[in-house]
Amino acid sequence: MSETLPSTGELLAATVPMVRTLNLQFGETSAERAVVTLPDQPDFHNHVGGPHAGAMFTLAESASGAIVLSAFGDQLSRAVPLAVRAEIAYAKLAMGPVTATAELGRPVADVVAELDAGERPEFPVRVTIRREDGAVTGEMSIIWTLRLNR
Prior knowledge:
Structural class: alpha+beta
Mean pLDDT: 94
Shape: globular
Distance between the termini: 36 Å
Helix content: 25-40%
Number of domains: 1
Low-confidence stretches: none
Pfam families: DUF4442
Protein name: DUF4442 domain-containing protein
Order of helices and strands: HHEEHEEHEE
Largest sheet: 6 strands, antiparallel
CATH class: Alpha Beta
Strand order of the largest sheet: 1-2-4-5-6-3
Organism: Streptomyces fildesensis
Radius of gyration: 16 Å
CATH architecture: Roll
CATH superfamily: Hotdog Thioesterase
InterPro entries: DUF4442 (IPR027961), HotDog_dom_sf (IPR029069)
């Protein structure tokens, strides 16, 4: 009998209540790219009928978390990933479902080498948020770290 390991999306939905609250949908999740969609849900609309800025922030942060778990999941026995700081820019009105695409800003091997040296590496994740028509509605830059368990 074989057991199936949970996907990154399933793991995040099980451990991060906001992922479940917003009904985030995980597409591709790899060490190179993570794609997460926020469905169009009136309960999370703002005053102009699109997704609330806080929901879009959570979408982007969740996409960044998905790529971090995909890239560094094999390090979780010795380190915990933590978001250090984030900056988001809202570029255009977002209406309907929006999708966040995250990309890691440093090679995984370089980050792990710093961890192996006993350091607390920091690394950027860039996230682009798009409407269904492909227009960029926002961009996030988030810095993550891996803190060694001591």
